[in-house]
Amino acid sequence: MLHTLNSIFPVRYTAMGLCVFGLLLSTFSLLALGAGLGAFVLFGLLVGVGVYDLRQSKRSILRNYPIIGHMRFMLEFVRPEIRQYFIESDNEATPFSRAQRSLVYQRAKGEPDKRPFGTQLDVHAEGYEWMNHSVAPTKLASHDFRITIGADTAQPYSASVFNISAMSFGALSANAILALNAGAKRGGFAHDTGEGSISTHHRVHGGDLIWEVASGYFGCRNEDGSFNPDKFAANARDPQVKMIELKLSQGAKPGHGGMLPGPKVTPEIAEARGIPVGVDCISPASHSAFSTPVEMMQFIAKLRTLSGGKPTGFKLCIGHPWEWFAMVKAMLETGITPDFIVVDGAEGGTGAAPLEFTDHVGSPLQEGLLLVHNTLRGAGLRERVKVGCAGKVVSAFDIARLMALGADWCNSARGFMFALGCIQAQHCHTGHCPTGVTTQDPLRQQSLVVPDKAERVYNFHQQTLHALQELIQAAGVNHPSGITAHHIVRRSTDHKVKSLAQLILTQLPNRALIDSELSSLPLIYRHSWPRASAHSFAAEFT
Q1: Calpha distance 217→232 (Å, rounded)
Q2: Average pLDDT in the chain
Q3: Is it the case that residue 193 has pLDDT exceeding 50?
Q4: With contact defined as beta carbons under 8 Å apart, do 528 and 325 qualify?
Q5: Separation between Cα atoms, residue 315 and residue 328, nearest integer Å
Q6: What does DSSP say about strands 312-316 and 281-283: parallel, antiparallel, or unpaired?
Q7: What is the pTM for the complete model shown?
Q8: Cα–Cα distance between 374 and 405 in angstroms, integer?
Q9: How far is C-alpha 238 from the chain's CA centre?
Q10: If you write DSSP's letter for every residue of 196-220 in order, what string do you get?
Q11: What letter would DSSP give residue 122?
Q12: What would the pLDDT profile of 76-134 be if each residue is shown by its tens digit?
């Protein structure tokens, strides 16, 4: 009963309804009794504000919460005075830095991101990092930094170094997908579909797509959930699809799989995924199309061929190191290499995951990225495989730092969600997202006005790359790939200052795993490399 009433007149419109009732009552009082002019004026003004809120297109919260939504912006207005209580003291308890969110909001809205009075961080704190600059800065003509992925394929892709990470339609609303893809189209960067496949909303604006194919094979599956090559080819050969990404795991819940409950499987979601309407949608924890590392490489080669020669790779969060080493050994044995690998850090987010998985399963991005980069170098494969990464990447410094550690490009999910207006209300799994970003409720997602939010997505991408350009120029290099671990400095726990090159092993010698004695290599290789097999994901322990 309550759900029915809420669908007819949502609770979030209560303030608006009360003000309309108050206006009607005060109008009657004024006409019949000649009293209540003050109440008439007050309620009239409030109703006017509510009507404006519902009609404006800049702020999703006001469209979903007319009148009362202004309370949030009042607090935001006075935030310098209440920063100590509402921002700084709460920063460690929040899922993501409010300062980072504020930076994204400013850039997305096209507002100046310059700040007075110096750094807001404690430069003497343990773990503080900075980038060394040059006395001979460079001057670059453009901030449009790009790399070529799949140079040896029939259809190589010139990618931006900053792209939209995997977020599925179903996890995000239709309007969110539309806005992300429209922004990607305008800015010339890539939009990862997430494992929910390619929906009609991905196709409207024609932005470049990275099609993520996961264990559920959504968009390319048979009725029993197995892989269907004909359906895959039909989608993969669409000119809008630029790359194919085989998903092994994601940072937020690696090795877990998932389920979209039947009531949430709408006709639109069912069409995109190739599943029945209203039936529980299962994402298995592992793939059925292959069971060994060699078979996995053969499957990647098959996807590349079926797509018409588009760059094909895989995404994973690093778990057991011998499993990753087994994949590399399979590359060496078969001669089949992916065109790219995306390393997802355990700090990455998702709409819903068990707490233990989000906090304690999977390798953090830095450690996972270093292991992938160094292993490929040690196997003599690094020049053949591009490496992307994702996991709380938001700022230009984040991009520069991760490229210094071995990444060729970075993806961001939450950064672009913030650009859409996400306030991290953490109601993604309830369907009650206040900004219309992660809900399938048609009324709630109407608050997200696509043209306005597409502009913000574009602005965020452009302004972040502008900031990256300034960092790269200050460092005295000509491309983000020129930033190395020697450029990034950290104050360590013993208060000593060292570059990341001194603190972290960032460069395993080329072909060291082939030409050198294992006894001369770091422990992880001495221990796990001999136990890895190209023909099994299991370790060969004796």
Answers
A1: 9
A2: 86
A3: yes
A4: yes
A5: 14
A6: unpaired
A7: 0.85
A8: 10
A9: 23
A10: T---HHHHSS---EEEEE-TT-TTS
A11: -
A12: 554 544 443 333 333 333 445 667 778 887 888 888 777 665 666 777 788 889 999 99
What phi, psi does 190 have (nearest 5°)?
A: -95, 150
Summarize pLDDT for 462-515 with one digit per residue, the tens: 999 999 999 999 999 999 999 999 999 998 877 789 888 888 766 789 999 999
Percent helix, strand and coil across the chain, each rounded to 5? Answer: 45, 10, 45
Radius of gyration of the chain (CA): 25
How many Cα atoms sit within 13 Å of 163 on the Cβ side? 30
Residue the block writes with tokens 């299991």 = 538
Could you say which DSSP state residue 405 is in? T
Measured CA to CA, the distance from residue 85 to residue 69 in angstroms comes to: 21
What is the pLDDT, as a whole number, of residue 88? 37
Fold of 146-428+455-503: TIM Barrel (3.20.20)
Rounded distance, CA 57 to CA 37, Å? 32
Strands 488-491 and 409-412, sheet pairing: unpaired
Report the distance separating Cα 192 and Cα 208, nearest Å: 9
Q: Quickly list H helices, 133-284.
A: 174-187, 200-203, 229-236, 267-273
φ, ψ dihedrals at 417, nearest 5°: -65, -40
**Residue 75 confidence (pLDDT):** 59
Amino acid in the structure at residue 155: Q
> CA-CA distance, 343 to 348, in Å (whole number)?
11
Contact criterion met (CB below 8 Å) for 175 and 446: yes
Name the residue ranges covered by the structural domains of the chain.
2-70, 146-428+455-503
Helix pair angle (450-475, 98-108), 10° resolution: 110
CB count in 10 Å sphere of residue 295: 15
CA–CA separation, 302 and 295 (whole Å): 10
CB atoms within 10 A of CB 320: 16
User: Does the pLDDT of residue 9 top 70, yes or no?
Assistant: no
pLDDT value at residue 85: 36
Q: What is the Cα–Cα distance from 90 to 99, expressed in whole angstroms?
A: 11
Q: Residue holding tokens 């972290």?
A: 504
Angle of helix 450-475 relative to helix 396-404, nearest 10 degrees?
50
Gap between the Cα atoms of 168 and 193, Å rounded:
6
Beta strands across the sheet bearing 497-499: 129-131, 488-491, 497-499
C-alpha to C-alpha distance for 50 and 328, rounded to whole angstroms: 59
From 127, 185, 123, select the one nearest 160 (Cα to Cα).
185
* Helical residues (DSSP H) of 274-350, grouped into ranges: 293-306, 321-334
CA distance 312 to 314: 7
